[in-house]
Amino acid sequence: MSASVELACPRDAEGFTRVYAATPREFAAAQRCLHCGDEHALQRESITDKGGLAGCVSCGHIELYTLKDFPRALGITVVVIAAVLAPFTYYVSLFVAAGIDAALYAFAPNMVMCYVCHAAHRGFAREPRHPRFDREIDERLKFGERAVMGKPMRPGGTAGAPEPEH
């Protein structure tokens, strides 16, 4: 099982570097950024003994969320083609596109994202499990005291947390 982390460059918000390891426990202590050339430390202590994530490998923050590693460009392409063909297929192409889109989504693997630095973690063990995206956590981290819906941080972060209620 190989693992990877897509890290954002701290100097260039548009720049990303992807770091690979044969197993989650084999990440190096630091990684050279492809954009700025600096060495950036990896938070290897965020990786559990079983290869899961207790926090972000890039910044160490303990609040993460899970989402599908869905090829969005492919999904949009399928829908656009179906929409163009709709008048000629008596709109059956839209139902076919929905089926293809659902199959792509069902078979897409999960990835874990960091709320703070937006690092994408792939190939890590499922446990501890992180819930799907929670707007309240995102608002608290973006706006701090000004957050309208922000909820306080759960002790231990999002590892093993229940799914959001909304």
Helical residues, percent = 10-25%
Strand order of the largest sheet: 2-1-7-6-5
What is the first-to-last residue Cα distance?
33 Å
Major pleated sheet: 5 strands, antiparallel
Q: Helix and strand string, N-terminal first? A: EEEEEHHEEH
Report the β-strand fraction as a percent range: 15-25%
Treating each run of at least 4 consecutive H or I residues as one helix, how many helices?
3
Mean pLDDT: 90
Number of strands: 7
Q: Which regions contain 5 or more consecutive residues with pLDDT less than 50? A: none
Please tell me the total number of domains.
2
Radius of gyration over alpha carbons? 19 Å
How would the global form be characterised?
globular
Structural class comes to: alpha+beta
Would you write up a description of this structure?
This protein is an alpha+beta fold and about 170 residues long. It folds into 2 domains: about 5-70 and about 110-145, no CATH class; about 70-105. The protein contains 3 helices and 7 strands, in the order βββββααββα. α1 (about 70-85) runs antiparallel to α2 (about 90-105). The relative contact order is 0.18. The mean pLDDT is about 90.
Describe how the helices and strands are arranged:
Elements: E1 3-8, E2 16-21, E3 30-32, E4 39-41, E5 64-68, H1 72-85, H2 92-107, E6 110-114, E7 120-122, H3 135-143
Helix pairs in contact: 1-2
